[in-house]
Amino acid sequence: MGSEEAEARRGPFKDLVALREKVKAKKPDFVRQESWRYVRVKESWRKPRGMDSKMRLQKKGWPAIVKVGYRGPAVARGLHPSGFREVLVHNVEELERLNPATEAARIARTVGLRKRLEIMERARELGIYVLNPPRLPVEEFELEEIEEEEELPSEAEKAMGHGAGRDVWEMAERFGVGLTEVSWEMLESVIHKPIAIVRFRRLR
Hints:
Layout: H1 3-8, H2 14-25, E1 85-89, H3 92-96, E2 103-107, H4 113-126, H5 152-160, H6 168-175, H7 184-188
Parallel strand pairs: 1-2
């Protein structure tokens, strides 16, 4: 991804996100009491409740405790790191209600692949940024045993093949169909393994 494309995907609230990060950098690390003393006690925050707890009493030299005053800027709350306001969508109708200038879509996890492609195509037409674009399932492939370790990269590349394309748009262009018309039969006709898992056994 080029610098211009990355800049274009940054939302209108990028300055507020930067402000939130700047404020957060000045906050102390809130750790659980005695986590630095015992291995069994993790650092994840727990409120100290002991009657004589020095942390609860906020004695000098003890770690800071969580207070409402450490909260981040109100204007930056709920913003996605990309600079957009994140909105969960389940279908195309919900997508069309978004404001492309300030809001980004996140496709719900219960949405199937076919509807994800429809949402993605409509989002591209409306100029809406999708935070989790659809990805094709990963298929594992095991190579045959080889003798030389130096042959691993070339053998893995040979097994993976060129594929149908890097994304759904390249696939649709290759098959000469619409974005939502790419079928599993078309993809299965292409000899390609997205990821090749190789196992190397050193010969004695």
